[in-house]
Amino acid sequence: MATQTTWLITGISSGFGREMAQQLLAAGHTVVGTVRKIDAIADLQAQYPDTLDAQILDVTNVEAVHQVVDQAFERHSTIDVVVNNAGYGLFGAAEELSDEQVNQILATDLVGSIQVIRTALPHLRQQASGTIIQISSYGGQVAYPGNSMYHASKFGIEGFVESVAQEVKPFGIRCLIVEPGGARTEFRYGSAHVAKLMPEYDGPTHAFLKMLDPANGLAPGDPAKMAARIIESVDDPSIPLHMVLGSEALRNTITRLEERLAEYRSETDLARSTDITD
């Protein structure tokens, strides 16, 4: 990006959000970054006092989402890119999860992202430009045991953004869904939430415990490289709606989609049997 742009990014205290904010700020761009605790980005505030507009936001608070997003557009006139990054992982079998855990992850990873986009849309439509980037996961296409509610939130937000992308294209607004594979961020090694585990699900369902332990090997994804590819995608019209990051993630996604396609093709006669033929 040769010209200076303004980005609104939720959840810049760690992970992809922080990597993106750091790279953008270092390149001279302006970032409206949200965090739940301002102390988490004190270093960035000190280094970029004029181009980092830090805001406290819990995306589960819908009224706060409206206020923060609306005021960001008012202060900066134009926001070129809106990035939904705030979120976390929840691990455990469906039966192991509490009602509170179920409600909280949907409020954060699904509803929070929906409300950020809905609040930004009137402003983006008025300026007749802008890009919405939804940080999802290849877990928005591929499901594993022990991750049911995380997959529910990611499958859900991907369907929402796919629909919105078609609705807003006539207004000059572009949408991108980013599907990273495993990366060396706090998603696995710090911020992951784990249910109260039951011995009945020991085995494949609890395989995520090995993944969450750094002693078993770190994830293959480089957060800095992934953040750079996300930033570059804004200026690359050849990037499709779904952008997979990580060779393992792409391989697993293609395998699952091919399996799913074969499943659907096997149902041709069954599907036709329910058509009205007279």
TrEMBL record:
The keyword Manganese does not apply. Gene3D superfamilies: NAD(P)-binding Rossmann-like Domain. It holds the Pfam family adh_short. Residues 247-274 form a coiled coil. Transmembrane segments: none annotated. Keywords: Coiled coil, Oxidoreductase. Belongs to the short-chain dehydrogenases/reductases (SDR) family. This is Short-chain dehydrogenase/reductase. It comes from Bombiscardovia nodaiensis.
